[in-house]
Amino acid sequence: MLKQQINNPGPGQADKALTDRTQLSVEIAEISEIAEMLFGKIEDRMKALVGVEQRLDSKIALLEELIQRLEKAAQSYGSGGDKQYRDITELSARGLKIDDIAGLLDIPRGEVELILRLRK
Question: What is the pTM (predicted TM-score) of this model?
Answer without folding.
Answer: 0.43
